[in-house]
Amino acid sequence: MSTTQSERPAGPARLNWRIRLRRDKSLLLMTVPAAVLLLVFNYIPLFGVVTAFQEYDPLVGVWHSQWVGFDQFQQLFHDPAFWDALKNTLYLSFVQLVLFFPIPIVLALLLNSVVSERLRNFFQSVVYLPHFFSWVLAITIFQQMLGGAGVLNQFLRQHGLGAWDIMTNPDTFALLITSQAIWKEAGWGIIVFLAALSAINSELYEAAAADGAGRFRRMWHITLPGLRGVIVLMLVLRLGNALSVGFEQFLIQRQAVGHEAADVLDTFSFYYGIASGGYSFGAAAGLFKSMVSLLLIWGANRLAHAFGEDGLYRK
To answer: Is residue 85 within 8 Å of 264, Cβ to Cβ?
Structure first.
């Protein structure tokens, strides 16, 4: 006999916003500091974007500066130094994406395979530590190791092998800054992947081992599929931030290798905009970078949806 409408179990009642607010009050209060920081440092400064369409004069302020429309962008696109900086940014972003992005995944897999918890915690602390160094300290360490008077070149000279120019060679600058980024940030980047690994059901590994699957097959058929969603998400975020390859890192080493090799969009905005008093010109360069980054993250997210992954949000 069919169940009547009155006998069917009722679905979960929708709570009104007052009840949900009272229920989630503690969680909402925890988000207030992060929301304030986001508002102060990310949303309020968006008002300054208007200076990219002005001939901004700090003495008269935004309200009284001359409006010039797209003149700053026309000047920007006719500047050869801008195109050189854009080319360097894209090239260095590609190198870092290929060489740097897989490293945290590999480190997370290696650390996850360490049986001893004490040893695993020790290695995690070691690889995390460089993240807390400033770029000044990190580059100083590289200079002491690889510079002209560094440990490596002193060893080579003592054995009659000559010096090896690493820190001031524009041709190898892309590999240098990528190795610096790997040493400093790869350990911190494994946190998300270790969290994703801990969420994989351990019974899957036990069942696979009982069926005779070795370590490599368990990693290929269980671990990597379990990480796929997180890998795609981090790749989307990485592509969205691809044009921000590191302002401080390049600023410190720009004089050593020359602006032809070290100028990226961030340093271009600083040197040709703020440092030279062309605030509107620098704002135009920054706005261009932001728009390209937005397009990159949108395209990467669409690509993630095409492969059946959530990306930044579910389709």
So the answer is: yes
